[in-house]
Amino acid sequence: MISIVSSLLGAYLVFVIALFALQRSMIYHPGSAPPSPTQMRVPEMKVVSASTADGLELSGWFAPPKPEKPLIVLFHGNAGSVADRAFKARRYMDWGYGVLLAEYRGFGGNPGNPSEEGLYADARAWLKFADDQGLGPDNLVIYGESLGSGPAVRMAWEFAKQNTPVAALVLDAPYTALADVAQHHYPIVPAQWLVRDRFNSAAIISEINTPLIIVHGTLDGTVPVKFGQALFNAASEPKTAHWIKLAGHNNLYDSPAAEVIDGFLARALAAR
User: Fold this and answer.
1) CATH number for the domain whose boundaries are 2-270
2) pLDDT, tens digit (0-9, with 9 covering 90-100), for 215-249
3) Is 0.85 surpassed by the pTM of this model?
4) Do the beta carbons of residue 74 and residue 143 sit within 8 Å?
5) Spatial distance between the Cα atoms of 241 and 221, rounded to a whole number of angstroms
6) What is the CA radius of gyration of the chain?
7) What gap in Å lies between CA 170 and CA 23, rounded to an integer?
């Protein structure tokens, strides 16, 4: 009996150690170098570059806004590349918004390896790029999709701490903290203690004083809606939420999610 228990404990420890060692390969699933914007039906977008504080040169896609419209800076989820978000960019560009599809290190043919601090550095580099185009915080909508909601919340928080809030914050299938999602998916291990890249949005979102919208599918199996709801509850006003019935993690735009976000942005910008 003791030997059986010892074997089970040994196997459990091996499993936990493997999870800890391989966690970043489980979190980040980067796509290779993407096709051109024209191939993805966004010919207005240009391939542009941004330089990070730690010396990386990143490529992303950019189209400037029409007069009186802001720039949407989109930080995407944990898989693929900016090309996989071209369909979202297409919707907003058709309404006159500028869009910056901000690519991360290690994704889309970019150098480097992704991590929490690395993605924050990448986000800062892309916001510096936007500023260099004459698009400062008043003209920025920060959009975070899934994993990208972590960098999005962090950047909105950094602007708020400098008393230069952005125009709006859009969170698409967000989470409270990455460790919470890990614990949900791996309940038999102490995931809360093992996750290195924590992206703890819940700890800082109450300090963000910019208009916020959260959109989340009620059938999301990747980032369950309970995490979006908890993040919404932790956030300060002004805020709104749209819980999309029967939607999962990757099909929010099969519903009128874009139209809901566009309406929210119109109201937020008009209220300034």
Assistant:
1) 3.40.50.1820
2) 999 999 999 999 999 999 999 999 999 999 999 99
3) yes
4) yes
5) 19
6) 19
7) 27
Q: Any bridge partners for residue 140, and if so which?
A: 71
Domain ranges (residues) in the chain: 2-270
Q: Where are the beta strands (DSSP E) in 146-184?
A: 168-172
d(CA 129, CA 46): 13
d(CA 112, CA 103): 12
**Long-range contacts, 134-137 (Cβ 8 Å, 24+):** 135/64, 135/65, 135/70, 135/71, 135/98, 136/164, 137/164, 137/165, 137/166, 137/167
Asked if the peptide bond before residue 238 counts as cis, ω within 30 degrees of 0, the response is yes
* The Cα angle at residue 162 between residues 161 and 163, in degrees rounded to 5: 90
Coil, strand or helix: which one is 82? helix
| C-alpha–C-alpha distance, residues 171 and 228, integer Å | 9
